[in-house]
Amino acid sequence: MFPGMGGMNPAQMKKMMQQLGIKTEELKASRVIFETDEGNFEIENPQITKMTIQGTDTFQLIGELKESKSSSVTTKPKFSEDDIKMVSDQAGVSKEKAKQALEETDGDIAEAILMFKK
Fold first, then answer.
1. Which CATH code is given to the segment(s) 23-68?
2. What is the distance between the alpha carbons of residues 90 and 108, in angstroms, rounded to a whole number?
3. Distance CA 27, CA 41 (A)
């Protein structure tokens, strides 16, 4: 029974949700990782419920939170070789200096070029 639901049992709740067009699905996972600018958050032993309401998916996540600063998940670079070449050509500097400028500007091409125009 769910508190505050007037004694409605889980089977009744599921039937009512189906009548309202709400579909639920339990997802299996052993770990979930959120990558943020401040670090990564790992949820171990997660219980994940996916609800589809009017074509929109919503996820409910319950589990044990662990936080770590390093990630085993590979993140894609913030700039490409073409970006390095563009900064190098436009600013008239070596590719190494262009790459360093892009790293310092978090991949902002215009700002990297302007660093050398000052």
1. 2.20.70
2. 14
3. 19
Q: What is the DSSP letter of 55?
A: T
CA–CA separation, 95 and 102 (whole Å): 10
pTM for this prediction: 0.46
Q: What is the pLDDT of residue 1?
A: 44
Q: What is the pLDDT of residue 18?
A: 83
Q: Where are the domains of the chain?
A: 23-68, 81-117
CATH: 1.20.1050, 2.60.120, 1.10.8, 2.60.40. Which one for 81-117?
1.10.8
Does residue 116 contact residue 101 with C-beta atoms inside 8 Å?
yes
Q: Tokens 């500097």 — which residue?
A: 93
Q: What is the mean pLDDT, run by run of 10 residues, along the chain of 118 residues?
A: 65 84 89 83 91 90 80 62 92 92 89 87
Q: 39 to each of 35, 45, 111, how far by Cα in Å?
A: 6, 20, 25
Token pair recorded at residue 4: 């505050």
